[in-house]
Amino acid sequence: LCEPKSVSSRDDEGDDEDLNLLDENEEDKDEGEVYAEFARSLSERFGEEGSSAGLSDSKSMLYAKTVTAKKRSLEANFVHFWNQLVVLLHGKETLYARGSAAAAGESADGSGVDFLSCMARVCVELSKSEVRQVRYASCVCGYALLGSLVHAHQILDDSSTVLTRQLRAAQGNTSAKKDRRRDLNRRMQECHDRSNELDEHMKDLFQELVIVRFRDVSPQIRALTVRWVGVWVTQHPKRFLSDAYLKYVAWSLNDKDAQGRLAAVQALGRVYQKHAASAASEEGEDVSEFSNISALDLLTQRFSSRFLELVKDVNEHVCVGAMDLVLSLADASLLDLADTDQCGALRQDLAMLLLDGNVKIRKAAGRLAARVVESSLEGALAQPAAGKRGKTKGKGKAGEPSSEEKVSACVMACKALGSILEEGSAKLSKAVKRQNAGAQSEEELRVRAVMAVVPCLGQLHDWDVLAKACRSKDLGGDSGLLCVVRVALACVQCFSDPKPAKEFLLSRKEKGRKVMASAVKDFCDRSVQGYTMAFTAVLKGLFNQCKSKKGHMAVSLVCLLCKCATHVQQELYVATGRVADYETMVSVMQELWGRDSLYPASSRRSSSSTKDEEDDLNRCGHLAPIAACLAELESAGPGATREPAQRALVDMIASLKESISPGLGSLEQGKAAVAMARISALRPKLLEDPAQRESVLELLQDFLAASRAEEMEEEEEEGGDAMEESGAEDE
Q1: Distances (CA, A) of 532 to 241, 444, 473, 576, 691
Q2: Maximum distance among all alpha carbons in the chain?
Q3: What is the pLDDT of residues 546-562, one digit of tens each?
Q4: What pLDDT is attached to residue 490?
């Protein structure tokens, strides 16, 4: 490629596999034609051998793993090779055309070899090939070469900065100082000349390769282009942090393919993260290279609405990347999440994302929701309430919030999180209705959504504060109490499960550090112990409050409290002498079980029997969580805590048998629905005894037969009425 040389034609039998680059009769050809012909011949050879070598497959060979480096792909090794080569040539001063000519003993009049121009032209010509794999490989090579030049250019800029400081320090009229300044000026001029030369190479390669391949038909090549532009911006922001380069990344946010959108979102996320890290850096760290904030401000103003729209993208990876991008904007103080005018629609989107079935989306939404809650709390907690100065109890050390302030912040965080979930109540109701589930499943979905947020909110990690928040005066009614209890349940479920507990511990460690299994187990045990000690007396009081509550709030609160009761460590009740509190809690559950409904009595019924059945099932939604809680309590723990739960279950089964002994068909419609709900709730216990199972099955079969007979009679009556109406119309 570098010098004209005579070559022979390829052997027809394939003995000579060397590719002819130039012909003896083509020495007078234009340089561009030579490179173009070389690219065509190479592409044709790849096209001929592609079917046997696998180059025509959808997966390029660049994606394959190498034998020696299993954790690094061939593409990563390829990029690493170019970076090492260019940096090595830069260190040996043979990278530039002038240095190469001097080393070869030639003049710099064009007769020497220009390595950079040669490789750049090869990559540009190969990128025009019709073979997609060839275009991809040439783009990887060209972008890696350009990235290496960016690295070398950054080294020259750093050297120029150091030389400038040394020149300012070398003041004086002595001959040594003058020689020192003369040498420094010469070296600075050399750095300047080499930087200009690299600038020309980078500019030519960017215009001929990046701008053209940015509109390539292949989504992989477009994504590769956008990803590399983001790398250059973060690698050398002094040179590339400008609208001239950022606009290509921003335009790709509207790419029709998810790969292009994902590459743009990730590239912009790294840019904003670098800016946030520079803004929050410690004193003494040099962050002057990332000082072009006007370009980022302009980009944020133009595309912030698009950033917020991408959190609803149909692709899960783009959705997660967009939420991380919004977080980076907030970290860089370029987006105020508490501003309702700018981020008002984000709250509704967050509610939908927190209730999503995808775990990755829920976790990313949890991080963003935690940041939204913190932003909403910053203004409220920054200004202390008027008239309360000097009257707070439990004042901590200097600079630390008092006990009352911690409880107030916890209540506010729980209520803010509850308000976010209320934005998605419509979607949640549709999902529950589609699954034909009740209040228990609705609360389970809400708790699952809160579990994604709890690890990111430090205000919710103190069990004593959560317990005090359940009795705080700032709750503002049953809705506030429901929010706090839901958060407490989400915390104990998150921190007692080894998998989310391990993720939480890893998030608090440095990147790359590991967490031992013994440390995870110890953390889970300590979490359950702390939760039990803090909520021993609180659960008793909350269950007693349920006896006087009515409506949907009461059913939801019972569902949450029953779940909370299953996570307590029963041995601590015995060790602390609080078995009486435990028995009171069980007796309250048994009393609530005896009620057919926790809703207020209503005599109005709809005209549809199906609607009435659904209302009856919803009105007795407290039965299933009570039965499940007592069944779990009587199967674990010491005998002093198992016996009350066992006695309660025996009494519940006995009362159920007595109520259905005349037969389900003899009961009213509402009573029959409640009896069916009780049978469904106690199904695991009823199946344990064969005699009970047979008796219940007979009652159910009789009830179903009677119900079918009534339905058939109603259909016959409706059919007879329809025939009479049609006969009257005929007459």
Answers
A1: 54, 21, 23, 11, 39
A2: 130
A3: 888 888 888 889 999 99
A4: 93
